[in-house]
Design brief:
Blueprint lengths: L35 H4 L3 H13 L24 H11 L4 E3 L5 H6 L9 H26 L5 H26 L19 H16 L15 H13 L1 H5 L4 H12 L17 H4 L4 E5 L11 H7 L10 E2 L2 E2 L5 E3 L1 H4 L22 E2 L21 E2 L22 E5 H13 L7 H16 L13 H12 L5 H7 L33 H4 L12
Antiparallel strand pairs: 1-5, 2-8, 3-4, 6-7
Length: 532
Amino acid sequence: MKIKYLLSICAAAVLSFSACVGDLDVQPLDPNVTTAEIAYATPGAFNQSIAKIYAVWAMSGQDGEGSTDIAGLDPGNAQLLRSYWNLQVITTDECKNAWSNSWVPEINGMLYSSTKNESIEGVYQRCMFTVALCNEFILQANASSVLDAAQKTQYVAEARFNRALAYEVLMDLYATPPFITEENYSLAPSALTRADLFDWIETELNECRDHLPTPSAVEYGRASQGAVDFLLARMYLNAEVFKGEAMYTECIAACNRLFTEGYALSTTYANLFKADNNITSSKEIIFPIVFDGTKTKTWGGMTYLIASSRSGKAVDLNRDGVNEGWDGNRATSGLTSKFDTFDPAMRDAAMLTDARGIFDSNGRSEAITTTSEGTFVTEGWAVYKFTNVKSDGSLCEDTTFPETDFPMFRLGDAYLMYAEAVVRGGSGATKAEAVTLVNKLRERGYGGAGGDISESDLDLDFVLDERARELYWEGTRRTDLVRFGKYTGSQYVWDFKGGVATGVAVNSYKNVFPIPVSDLSVNGNLQQNPGY
């Protein structure tokens, strides 16, 4: 972005991004900063502003890979997608990191506490920053005299969707974040109960849905009615966790709406995660986080997801002729063992029967046994699911910063949400219909009907494992395990759960993360989550 905006929350940002300045007439001390009166003077400025809101997921700051919108948060390590992915994936049975950074053992072993952790801080503060941006944008759009009625209606709906998404993430990961909208500015906002926050998000999504474009009319990368239906389906699937009420019938209804909106599975699974997935897989990707090698340069985001999963021999990322594998994240045997091989006695990535397993086992043991840190090239299969290579095999022009978009919401996930809701007793669909959708995913992976299941195979254990096979490393696993009652406790343990090589039970309070002390210290209306 070339314009710097004076947001009503800027003065409070040094202390907390959940706090807001009530005086909207505050003038900037820096003459190079543009005031709101100027920044929102044209329809084009509103388009830049809404683009900034979407970009928080992809970029830490407006001035390239080294900039950050939030003082004290590293632009790479604490970038939003990177931080969110760490919490949702590395804490689970899907992945472990090999680095020696201070945050690594805490995230690898679910050993996090109220002490500051970059990833926990990154998701919280950047989601609250999104909320603040949206609140200011909604105020400015509603008061604008330069937008026509149609522009104003769509822009406000887009901001409300982005704010609802940020709050859904906060509700999932932190349970009771501070609650603030354009209507209740406060220097010390209180939190809603988790159930009340759920109801508020649901209402917001339902109210803004019809004011958003249909999937066939939306600009790629922006919110559509389909994105609303997907987010509602995800919330309803997790409603027992979020508000103590089963809403599986509502989940099925949201999925059924989604299935009529023109989406279609990508023909080839691997193409969903390649550098031209905006073209090859745009019919399956419902809501992406968009990356561009020249316009969205960041050491977080897809740069991190791709580079951290490679060793120094990476061919799809390099800088100045130097290969750019970072020797960081690799699969656990808890993930790879869910994929069958042609020879059950031989565990080799090249022999997997399901093409969704995009791993490299060359020179590696399947299990991580010695330690979760420092053994990247020898223990745990490498994951090549995300790549900066195009579907035709060609490299992108910029091989330092990827072109690959992150599929935040996609149709394959909706198929599995639908199937799970059916198994859990939701009405509005049959088990036969659910099996048909699951088999579409498996036939894409197996290249035919060799992996098809029957109705008797479709139970909750199968659904959880199938979600791992279809959606691994896409940022869903922690939420899935919490919903199934397996993230904490002793019902399901995996290597290095609880910081122990063989895995141990973890206290249930860790189903959510701590509210950062940086916010608690400036807002006496907040309470720390129990256990921390």
